[in-house]
Design goal:
Layout: E1 3-6, E2 9-16, E3 23-27, H1 38-44, E4 49-53, H2 70-84, E5 89-94, H3 96-107, E6 112-118, H4 128-141, H5 146-156, H6 160-169, H7 178-189, H8 194-205, E7 220-225, H9 233-242, E8 247-251, H10 258-261, H11 263-274, H12 289-302, H13 313-320, E9 324-328, E10 333-335, E11 343-356, E12 369-374, E13 379-380, H14 382-387, E14 394-408, H15 409-418, H16 420-460
């Protein structure tokens, strides 16, 4: 848990992932700490060097030596990144952290490569509930001796802050665990942070981004809980109207903390957007350099394959991480016609021979012969991917062996659900490859009939 000193200001940071990789800076929101970003640390550390900060005045970071402003947060974090990063970074911001991320991307566009914004404060105008119920308590906590008053109130009326904050924070059918809920609640209860909370409340209202975010060119994924009663969905409407380049997603059964309430869904969406190799899972160690290099190699190969047309590098990285790489010796069987399958194969290296009975396709007979040889970049097994039925032929590694990339039906289904644009392009490319193959087979049949017709005419003469 290092403490970074930037221009005399200490910043407490939770650090994870490989130290020599691209930085992902995780920025929490109002009345919170680094823990607000904890569900994403394991996922992001698989590819990035993760820095999850305690903003000054929150968690274990001391307050700024002046009144807190969004601009000062932006400049301080930019200085931190300048000291620690040798290239553009990824920002993930929650609530006020989303507002800070947007300001940073607009003020220092060369610094920010991509952003993920979770329930970001756009207009600075929080919900009516927050303004009428929560803010008066926050304002009272900023007064002298307030921490003693707060403790007295909590002692007299058990769960006061629970009753106040829970309706603003979580969906009615929330999936948050009790452990996470108690930790988030503890951050919101810190009595010595009343002043910074009040200052940040005013700072958000002073930084309305409506009519400004249309100038944001940094690619962004914006995630919102459908039952957010802290940053209202009217701010999502501003994003939809004024920032068409943003990928806006609304999640059901989630409030202001969707990464705690719908963690698997959020992780898949973020992994899809950022091209994180492993989609779901909290690994104790990041992806190794060898694993990342293999994913990058597959991503580069996909550009010249049946399924990689019109995919950018991030999309190919995302796709590359979904394939399982398998190696086969010369003559080794890859699939058998008797197998039930749900995988499609992309030949990466070597050749794959397809054996079948042309007169009885899909049936096991004594008249098998080689009907096709597949080369790198070509696909096979796509019918089983669609219907999970029996294989229509044997697939055997060629005389130099073969390296194939396998992808399952379930993975393709999740891909289409999480990233409709990428999923649609992948399926389109696969359909186009299938169409080319069918047309080639039809051409072969026509040629065969023409030869048979020519032979018959010769015999009649």
């Amino acid at each position: 848990m290092p403490i970074f000193n930037i221009n005399g200001q200490d910043i407490h940071v939770i650090e994870s992932g490989h130290p020599n990789r691209q930085i992902a800076l995780l920025i929490h929101g109002w009345s919170s700490s680094w823990y607000a970003m904890s569900p994403l640390i394991g996922l992001m550390s698989q590819r990035f060097r993760v820095l999850a900060v305690d903003l000054p005045g929150y968690g274990k970071s001391p307050k700024l030596n002046k009144r807190t402003t969004i601009e000062d947060y932006v400049d301080l974090l930019a200085d931190l990144l300048e000291a620690e990063s040798d290239g553009p970074v990824v920002l993930i911001g929650h609530s006020m952290g989303g507002m800070i991320s947007l300001h940073m991307a607009n003020k220092y566009p060369a610094l920010v490569e991509r952003m993920v914004l979770i329930c970001p404060t756009i207009t600075g105008k929080l919900s009516t509930y927050i303004n009428l119920v929560v803010f008066p308590v926050t304002l009272a906590e900023s007064l002298p001796f307030s921490k003693y008053i707060s403790k007295a109130i909590e002692g007299a009326i058990v769960g006061l802050t629970d009753r106040i904050m829970r309706p603003a924070s979580f969906a009615e059918r929330t999936g948050i665990t009790q452990e996470d809920y108690h930790r988030i609640r503890a951050d919101a209860r810190r009595p010595d942070q009343g002043q910074v909370r009040a200052e940040c409340f005013s700072a958000m209202r002073d930084n309305d981004l409506s009519e400004k975010i249309h100038n944001t060119e940094t690619p962004a994924l914006v995630l919102w809980g459908a039952e957010d009663n802290t940053v209202p969905l009217r701010d999502a409407g501003v994003v939809a109207d004024e920032w068409p380049l943003a990928d806006l997603r609304i999640l059901p059964k989630a409030g202001h903390w969707p990464h705690f309430e719908q963690p698997d869904k959020i992780k898949r969406l973020i992994a899809s957007f950022l091209g994180v190799p492993l989609v779901i899972g909290e690994l104790s160690q990041p992806v190794t350099d060898e694993e990342l290099a293999r994913t990058e190699e597959i991503a580069q190969f996909l550009a010249h394959s049946d399924v990689g047309n019109d995919l950018n590098l991030t999309q190919r990285m995302r796709m590359g991480a979904q394939f399982q790489q398998r190696f086969f010796e010369p003559g080794e069987t890859i699939v058998n016609i008797k197998d039930v399958g749900s995988e499609m194969f992309l030949i990466q290296d070597g050749t794959v021979e397809v054996w079948s009975d042309p007169d009885n396709p899909g049936e096991l007979t004594d008249h098998f012969r080689k009907v096709a040889t597949l080369r790198p970049g070509q696909i096979s097994g796509e019918l089983a991917l669609f219907d999970e039925g029996l294989r229509s032929a044997d697939m055997i590694a060629g005389n130099m062996g073969a390296t194939v990339l396998a992808i399952t039906r379930d993975v393709v289904h999740d891909l289409c659900e999480d990233d409709p644009i990428l999923g649609a392009r992948f399926l389109w490319n696969m359909s186009r490859a299938m169409s080319h193959r069918v047309r080639f087979i039809q051409w072969q049949f026509r040629r065969a009939r023409q030869r048979e017709g020519s032979a018959t005419r010769v015999q009649v003469r």
